[in-house]
Fold:
Amino acid sequence: DTGVSQNPRHKITKRGQNVTFRCDPISEHNRLYWYRQTLGQGPEFLTYFQNEAQLEKSRLLSDRFSAERPKGSFSTLEIQRTEQGDSAMYLCASSLIGSTNEKLFFGSGTQLSVL
Amino acid sequence: GENVEQHPSTLSVQEGDSAVIKCTYSDSASNYFPWYKQELGKRPQLIIDIRSNVGEKKDQRIAVTLNKTAKHFSLHITETQPEDSAVYFCAARYSGGGADGLTFGKGTHLIIQP
Structure:
């Protein structure tokens, strides 16, 4: 499968715990995005990387959230001291900047439930 | 930043009829407008997109129109089929101020009645 891969698919955690999600983008894509989606809403932009550089963070990304893409390939999103309001689907997407069509391709997401 | 409004939130049409979903955006600098289809429990999938230098684009039963002056764009699905039932999201790419992610609408739940 050459699509965007995310792990785990589901994560249940207790409030206050830390969680980490992983995203493997399409191999030749140089941009990687993180979005959050809650029920009945569209995806909300959190942050994105071009290669290993994190170029933009949304105001939605509180200090408890951190994302990395150390080698410009896979990325991790960590949430510290989780809160019930963090419960959502976390979507990763990738694209190839510089191509004529900068289409975003999404992964299947990680569904986080904070109890 | 960019703001995208989408309507209706729910659309029910008879199989074989056409469906139209409309979106407006706020930032005149936006230049890329994709549409995504999301089935229950699955990833959003790109179905069609349009750039600001084009007014209309078609792909079989799906078409998108863009009115830059009015800052709105629409998705048209003709001859709807049961497999078209899903949530559809429009989005706009905000090109100014350094932010480069897509801003999505809240989605339209399209129901195809047999």
